[in-house]
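Notes to self after the call with IL:
- keep both proteins in one doc
- input above output, always
- annotate only the second one for now

Protein 1:
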Amino acid sequence: MPPRVRNLDEVDQTVTVPWDAASAEQARSRLRASLEHERVDDTTLDEAVQVVSELVANAVQHAGPMPGDVLRVHWTLRKGVVEVDVTDGGSSSTPHPVRQTPWQTRGRGLRIVRAYAHEWGYLDQPNGSRTVWAALGGPSRRRTR
């Protein structure tokens, strides 16, 4: 789906990817191309790409797929702030960074998201799906967790 342009300084784009860990690469690639086209600064671009990769990986590992065995990856760009979100089919657990231990080999995804994001959160939908989102480069308009 081509990006929807709201005005000269705003981009709104959604892609659907298979509910599969390999889809993180597809999401990263699409996001990077879109943000490079809009000349987003390198730091925000790199952080957004890393965050979307972590969100896709977490959705595949900890949640179910949406109907059709897919995830929805969405991003907006408004006045230099990039918001990324990944919607999955939901989970019985809630997203939270896990406490780090020296012997831990997994569980760093949301710690990475928290480190890069200006803010992040999640929204549970009435249909059971969940959207995990993060704002990079500045504050979000969402302000809910």
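Protein 2 (the one to annotate):
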Amino acid sequence: MTKKHLITCSVMLVVIIISAFDLSNATVVKRPSVAHNATRFALIEPPEEEAAGFSFAEEVLPVNSKRVNRKINYSLWMHSYTKVQSNILHIKAEKLFPVIVPILEEYGIPEDFKYLPLVESGLREGTSRKGARGSWQFMPGTARSYGLKVNKKKDERLNLRKSTIAACKYLNDLYAEFGSWTLAAAAYNNGSIKLEKAMHRQNEDNYFRMHLNRETGMYVYKLVAIKEVIENPGKYGYKEFYAQIYNHTNLMAFN
């Protein structure tokens, strides 16, 4: 009995040692993996204060939202010189702003909406696949609703002054409906009916807290990003020269 007891104890001791060895190895394998993932996450997670100071039409981006920070950082990168590799946005702004800004002021539209045509048609020309055309990318039906002639002989969507007046009337109607300039911008992009349905479904009236389709969900962030690269070109790889061109006072001198 004593011999058998000794053998049994020896076997149990060996099993315990092997188990302890396996657990020790498992711990060693897992720890570097967790630490590595945590490091990667920390590198890509933007700081919460990153959105501080960014605004659109005097509506400030919420600085305590990591989701907002990720979106604005991504949009700033997408519109930096590193990504665009062209001064086309600044060149088009130089051409458009002297005409657009006084009309926005006349109709009581926040000046930040001067960046909307750069989002709508800044990197492309012509007619979109859906049929939108001009600097403000009006669809034919909407253009006609706001007094523009669109037919085989004439297309006033291509007339910057007339289309800007139409856009101002449209934006004022959208603001009257939604009570927010960021929501008005989102509705300009996606249509008021779709936005209203999304607001009702989510029981939400703050653009920055809403979950919208990819294009509309990034729309205001694009406006803010273009505002940034136009007003602070050197910070995003563009020539400092443009910082003076797009000062509001200098813009008025172009008229």
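Annotation: Residues 1-44 form one domain. The longest helix spans residues 2-44.
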